[in-house]
Amino acid sequence: MGDKVDDSKAKAMPVGTYGYWAAGMKHFVSVKGETIVQFHGEGPWVINYVDPKDDPRNQKK
Fold first, then answer.
1. How far is Cα 51 from Cα 19, in angstroms, rounded to an integer?
2. Pair 13, 21: CB distance under 8 Å
3. Residues whose CB falls within 8 Å of the CB of residue 7, separated by 6 or more in sequence, listed in order
């Protein structure tokens, strides 16, 4: 959890794991290898990128 990526604080979540985060909780996600991640929730909600360069909305076409 936290608003900065810190891989030393990451916890592995095995296949099929369900995670729950309270509204407003800041956290980061990191994946290794071929991975499918599903995010869903009751809105409204947003994704805030730590590094704006990672935000696909900022990509030039």
1. 24
2. no
3. 30
Token readout for 40 is 């869903």
Question: For residue 2, what are the CA distances in angstroms to 6, 32, 47, 57?
Answer: 8, 19, 14, 23
Are the beta carbons of 34 and 8 closer than 8 angstroms? no
* Residue pLDDT, tens place only, 21-40: 777 777 787 788 888 888 77
Task: Cis check for the bond before 44: say yes or no (omega within 30 of 0).
Answer: yes
What are the boundaries of each domain within the chain? Answer: 1-61
